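Hi D.,

Good news: the full-assembly prediction came through. Inputs first.
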Amino acid sequence: MNLTHILSYSIWTPVFLGGLILLLSSKLSNTQAKWLSLISSIISFLITLPLYSSFDFSFGQFQFQEFFHWIPAFHINYHLGVDGFAIPLILLTSFTTMIVVIASWTSIEDRVAQYMAAFLIMSGLMIGVFSALDAMLYYIFWEAMLIPMFLVIGIWGGPNRIYATIKFFLYTVLGSLLMLVAFIYLYLHTHSFEIVNFYNAGLGLYPQILIFLALFMAFAVKIPMWPLHTWLPDAHVEAPTGGSVVLAAVMLKLGAYSFMRFAMPIAPEAAFYLKDFMVTLSLIAILYIALIAIVQKDMKKLIAYSSISHMGFVTLGLFMFNAIGIEGAYVQMISHGFISAAMFLSVGVLYDRLHTRQIADYGGVIHAMPTFAAFAVFFAMANCGLPGTSGFVGEFMVIMSAMQNNFWIALIAATSLIFGAAYSLWMVKRVFYGEVRNQKIKSLEDISWREFFILSVLAILIILIGVYPKIITDMTNATTVQFLEHIHLMKPVTSLPMDI
Amino acid sequence: MNQFIQSDISLILPEVFVLSMAMIVLMTDLFIKPSSRWIIFALSQLTLLGGAYLTSQHFNHETQFAFSNMFVRDGLADLLKMMSYMGTSLIFFYSRSYMKDRDLYRGEYFSLVLFALLGMMIMISSHNMLLVYMGLELLSLCLYSLTALDRDNQKATESAIKYFVLGALASGLLLYGMSMIYGATSSLDLSVIAASLLNHPMDHAILVLGLVFVVAGLAFKLGAVPFQMWVPDVYEGSPSSIAMLISSVPKLAAFAITLRLLGDGLQSMMVDWKQMMLIMAILSIGIGNITAIAQTNIKRMYAYSTISHIGFILFGLMSGSLNGYASSLFYVVSYMFMTLVSFAVLMMMSSKNFDCQTLEDFKGLNKRNPWYAFLMLITMLSMAGIPPTIGFYAKFMVLQAALDAGFAGFVVYAVLMALVGMFYYMRIVKLMYFDEPKLKNNIEVPIDMQWILSTNALALLVIGLVPHTFMEATTQAVALSFH
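Then the structure:
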């Protein structure tokens, strides 16, 4: 099998198939559109599998590289390639798209073809973000990916969708425009948009700090880190279930991935210098946002805040600058991808039946939907980090790495396990246990085979990573070592000389 | 001597051709019935085609001068002329049914536009201040009368008078500034002025005074803040097809004379004009984008968006490098194609008794006609500068040139203002895609316009995917003209 263009196929197959569905949208019936989208998403997922099976994980460099000159006037190249950091996320992306297509089977009735096409196109563009090795190519995928999401929230979202989608759009673009300025600065410095050349730009500390902050704006909005997170609860609440799933499972990871791909290796000294700043923001996210999550009345909002809190672990792990922290952050990313997707799908299951997301409207669901309640309790447990689930592994590794650095950081981070349990389990208690609230809940039907299938696949994956996280760490190991070597080549600086 | 004249004539052949065709169009109109007006349309399109052919005969040759250095033919001129033909041709296509509905589809319209085009061609090729002025006046007079073409319309007449009074004032300023520069350097020829500024020390005060007047006059024609007052009123008052003309092709010519006067003739005074351009760019980008948010009339919104785009163009010019000039050239050309689509969609949604004027009219366009909503989506994304559209590369090139010239703070400012701009462009997307339609009537579009409009809008996306040739063409044109 010839794998030279595997990345291009992974990116453009879903985009092309999505475009095809969009063009045919007026001619397809809803059922045809759904089946066509399902087949397209399965094909797109299968195409990404050889990336995993043929990748040489003992070798941390970029593989499957593709290169041609795209815009020679500005030395912009179509340069693709993946390392151990990108592969799991690419698989997560194509997998999530498949889940979203299945999950939206009955919940979307209006303009189905357009909806499905938006997710397919978005999936291709996100894979493009993960595999671009040219900063401009990366930037173009990054921005282009916003448009389908903007439309998905705006067209198929809840009552306040327009406010939410415009807020989402403007927040994200604000950050990315500053990133663009940073890229142009680096281009003028290195006469190239190659990311690898950016790594060796040899900048002084002061420019590094400016670049780090510009990139920080772009990525921190996306992750999102406190205090740039306020768009996320709005977007999640208003987005349709599929939109929430992609947003939580993949889009948030783009920010963390980009810290590892750009901000930290390009400006390592600045990353060291601003370490305390980043750690403080992460701890605020972990602790303060978890407290906010407890008082939420809307289930989706609660999960959205819990996502921010969990992503705090990712940034905390990254800025510990040791191997276990980075790998822990990485496991946390993948695990959060599955758990948050499962949580949002569970809310979707309830929402499809009763059309409300308010916790107060539920109670005693377990009597009507025992199978579903079993899944929901399991996912809530995974969300608060029950040992044996993937949620535990990531958080545990990050707390361990924090302990190596500073006892107090680890202590604060660890409290989140308590608060996480508080908000997850309290929600489960109010929704699933207790008295049956009303007649509507009594007449609920349990999950269909389709819902059962999706939820069990996710549950199996969560347990698999929880019991055997080596699957993930094996993929990232070599790259992590190389990443740390690159960063540690630059010595940590303790004081800021103001000359450039 | 005879031979000398002949080579001169061969260089201005496109201008001669357009001039004679404009007169033929004017005359033919007298002898045909209103029902066979398509002949005029065909003749006008033929003029543009012929002009393009004649221009392409010398495409990208080295710089040549004619009529004692008054007239120049170089890469920049040829490129801009080709783009002007293309833009004018699109204007004729897009405005046809709109003008027919309003009983404005007359011979005067075509001949006036062709004379305006001639004015622009002269501006683009002028290498002498007098010729700059002549071209500018020819263009402006045509535009004034085109604005008032619908003469029973009170608003149109009012805006034509406003345009005329302010335009005449600006021409006066420009002429006054030119006379001062002439007084100081005793020449109208741009290369002589450049040489004497470089070689002889002279009274700086009078030159700077002249420069201020010249820049003010140019800024008025471009529509840069603080000389922008006429723009929204003229856009709003004039028929949409005329507003489309005013906002698109003449910007190419205005850009050309700005570049020739400042970048070529007054090159050694760059320190002085850079500051003025910088202030105007900052104000235009800021005021244009912020004021556009408050508009409910779509044409006024377009007007403020034009002002902000002009700000970006000045931003590129202000970098004062070849790189900067090329980026502005790229910007102005891509701006023209974007603005043409945006106005064309506006006209397409209008019908015989209805003029699409307010933002409300865009509501639910996706439900009424998904394809045009999609084309408009591309255009708005391009105007907002979101990749992978051509508008993104335009902004990218300008920012890159400005950052190269060391204006880091202003680049961040421009980027933040571009974000403000995204808000009102995305508001149109919101109206089209997320809201329920207010108007229910079907959108009827002639088949030729459908194809041309689709091609034009898709080109914004396709050139965005493969922008290299286009970038190279602009860089080449500037490099050939300024070495």
